[in-house]
Request: fold
Amino acid sequence: MMNYPFTAIVGQEKMKKALILNAINPKIGGVLIRGEKGTAKSTTVRALADLLPEIEVVEGCPFNCDPNGDLCDICREKKERGELKTIKKKMKVINLPIGATEDRVIGTLDIEKAIKEGIKALDPGILAEANRNILYIDEVNLLDDHIVDILLDAAAMGWNIIEREGIKIKHPSRFILVGTMNPEEGELRPQILDRFGLMVDVEGLNDIKQRVEVIKRVEEFNENPEEFYKKYEEEQLKLREKIEKARELLKNVKISDDLLELISKICIELGIPTNRADITVARTAKTIAAFNGRDYVTVDDVKEACELALPHRMRRKPFEPPQLNKEKIEQIFNEFEEKNNEKNEDEKGNKENDKVKKN
Ligand SMILES: Nc1ncnc2c1ncn2[C@@H]1O[C@H](COP(=O)(O)OP(=O)(O)OP(=O)(O)O)[C@@H](O)[C@H]1O
Reply:
């Protein structure tokens, strides 16, 4: 069945931005989307598939090995023999259903065959498919604890490791974790919360015009998905190209030491212990700059990145919803801008003094 087009989602800009940023830069580390029922969370994640770029993978590899990155045993042998061929493949959204068993997630291993043939004895699971793709979990807060632990281990190491009766088989598994959840059905364990690069709170639309537009578009889409898609084809193409360009530009995006200091100051003053926070804010700010077609980061990019990367990392009591201390952040940004203005004034003054001296 055809997906509802991403560019036809009404409003919900923050959720759309967070997903796009991850498509540009997988190193951001995914996104957790929290919100009430029926606010287009799952529709938007599924719609992202159409916008995803192509990546280079080893031809025929069930784990989508990166020819220039970590390789599974089969690809490593091929490389040593000089037989490694690469092809381009579109990134995908891989669904992890809530009821998935451990075998389905990590794959199944034929032990007798594995002794002789190694990794060839593995029937790949979801973690294989998810390598270098988006791993999507709807209702991630309802996922079985045991499966959560498997995901956390794989995410921490970048490898899926299967140990059975003294035999150890592994393959690369670096996925972009995207989860959606309705907080009314329970909060998420802090360990998994911290694994998401970004977090977005989605609220239902409160504008009559926007809500009417949703009814019209969804009805039109259901009546004739192909026709509906055609209406948005050009916009989809434009956005895909913008993502593609941003991926190229990202390599050259620079961030000043002043802005790095600002990021760390914010994290310290908000009492966020993990350095992962600073790193993610910086990466996200660079990616926002690239999406806007710039090769340098601005204060506004940092501000937007903080709003996406920090809320779920704030200290809070157990089971309290994650929330950003917006006033505190605003204050730090104001101080930064005041200091910058003073610096600029001083520099201007110095230049004028120089002029006077020269004359
Ligand atoms: N802003 C929007 N733009 C377009 N369609 C929307 C919007 N908000 C809701 N919808 C439509 O409402 C329906 C419900 O959306 P969806 O299933 O994605 O919600 P959800 O947030 O994932 O909630 P649930 O957990 O109930 O599935 C879909 O048909 C979707 O297209």
The longest helix spans residues 326-358.
